[in-house]
Amino acid sequence: MGQFQLQLLASLVLLAIAGARCSDPELTTDFAVPDGVDASKLDGNFFTYTGFRGGVSTAPGETGSKRATVVEFPALVGLGISFFLMYFQPGAVLPPHLHPRGSKLIYMIQGTLTVGFTDSNNKLYNQTLQEGDCFVVPKALVHYMANLDSDKETKVIFSFSSSNPGSIQLPSNLFGSNIPSKVLEKSFGVSSRVIKQLEYPHKVKGGH
To answer: Can you tell me whether residue 120 is helix, strand or coil?
Structure first.
C-alpha cells in the first residue's frame, strides 16, 4: 500500500472519530500551545508528525508499534485523538488489556486479525477482520488481538478518542504488581504453585 493510500486511511479514521466525545480537557483556545512557546512562531511543523515513516520493525512471532500521542506529538493536547501503527507478525498475540481513557477504532491495512472484547456482563464480542475492515472497542473494556495466520504479516492503524488513552496490560498488571499471592490464589481458585508460575515472567521483567 502506497503513501497516498496510508494518508487517505489516516484521514478517514480521523473523520470517523471527529464526532466522538473527547475524554481530554476541553480547550478554550483554537489549540494548546506548549508552555514557554511563543504561539506566533508556530508553523505547520508543529502540527506535523513524521514518526510513522519507515513502518515498524518487529521480531518473528511478535508485535511492534509506533505511536502518536501527546507524549510524541504535543499538538494533540486537548484534541481528543491519537494514533498507533502496529504490525503483527504471524502468530503474534496482544494479550488482554484495556485503555482507561479512550475508545479504540481499529482499521485494517493488511492481513487478518482476530479481535474481541468483553463487556461488564462477561459477554464476548469477537470478530476476524479482513483488509479494509473497522472494529471499535468501547472505552475501558478488556480486549485482545491476535494474528493467527501462519505466514502473513498484519498491519493495522488504531485511533483513540483521547490524546493519551493509557494502557493496562492485564497479565503484567495482575501478576507483576506485587498483589499478595494469597489474594490471587483465592481469586483464581488455583494453588500457590500455579500463581508463582504465572508471576515469574512478569517479576523477571519488572512487571512491564
So the answer is: coil
- Which of 2-6, 168-172, 180-184 comes out lowest in average pLDDT? 2-6
Q: What is the four-CA torsion angle of 16, 85, 136, 134, rounded to 10 degrees?
A: 70
| pLDDT tens, position by position, 18-33 | 444 445 777 889 999 9
Q: At what angle do helices 192-204 and 181-188 cross, to 10 degrees?
A: 120
Rounded to the nearest integer, the mean pLDDT of the chain is: 89
Cβ atoms of 99 and 144 within 8 Å: the answer is no
Determine the Cα–Cα distance for residues 188 and 180; give it in Å rounded to an integer: 13
The Cα–Cα gap between 148 and 6 comes to 24
**128 compared with 201, residue with greater pLDDT:** 128
Compute the distance between CA of residue 60 and CA of residue 88 in angstroms, rounded to an integer: 9
- Residue 1: CB partners within 8 Å, gap ≥ 6? 109, 110
Please give the pLDDT value at position 47: 98
Q: How far apart are CA 115 and CA 124, in angstroms?
A: 10
- Cβ-proximal residues to 64 (8 Å cutoff; 6+ apart), any chain: 56, 57, 58, 86, 87, 89
Taking the CA of residue 160 as centre, how many other CA atoms within 13 Å lie in the half-sphere pointing to its CB? Answer: 25
